[in-house]
Amino acid sequence: MSEHHPIGRIGSDPEAFEAFYREHLDAVQRFIARRTASPHDAADLTADVFLAAIAAAGRYRPERGSPIGWLFGIARHVVAEHARRGARNVNLLNRISGQALLDADSLATVEDRLAAHQDARALYRALSTLPEADRALIELIALDGLTVADAAQVLGVKPGTARVRLHRARRQLTTHPLVTALEVHS
User: Fold this and answer.
1) Which residue in 156, 20, 39 sits closest to 109, CA to CA?
2) Which of 49, 35, 42, 51 is closest to 78 using CA atoms?
3) pLDDT band at 17 (very low <50, low <70, confident <90, very high)
4) What does the angle CA 27 – CA 33 – CA 35 come to, to the nearest 5 degrees?
C-alpha cells in the first residue's frame, strides 16, 4: 500500500530517496545536534536515520501522521539505540571511520551546528528530572517543532494522553529558567 506513497518508494527508487533526503536532511541534523555533542556521532547518526528510513519505508502509513513525525520517530529510536549500546570500543571505531569521511569543511559545519544547539543540550539536562515519556514529549514539541498530534504519533499514544503528559511536565518544570524557551505547537 505505501509503495504508492513517495516514502514507500525511497527504498527502491534512488530519485525518490534523493528528494526525501534533501527535503528532510536539515530537520534530521537539527534533531541529532540537539541530542549529541560529537560531530562524528552526529554525522553517523544522521546516516543511520536515513538508512533506517529506507528499511522502514514499506511500513510507512500516511494516515498515522506526517512524514516528518514518522522520520523523527525513527530518529528517536536510532538515537536511543546509540545511547543504549554504550560500548566504548564500538563507538571509538565508529568515530575513527567517521573522521575519515568528514573533510575539514564538513567537520566545521557540523561543529557549528552543534555549537548552535548548546542551549538545547542544557535544556535536555534540565529535562532529565522528568519521566522518560514526558521528557520525550517535550523534546518533540518544544525542540523539534512537532504538533501535539504528531508527537503523540511518534510516541505511540493518543493526542489526549499527550496533552495531559505535556501539561504535567510543564507544571513540573515551571521553576527552571530555560523553560521559557518551551514553545508548544498544537
Assistant:
1) 39
2) 49
3) very high
4) 110
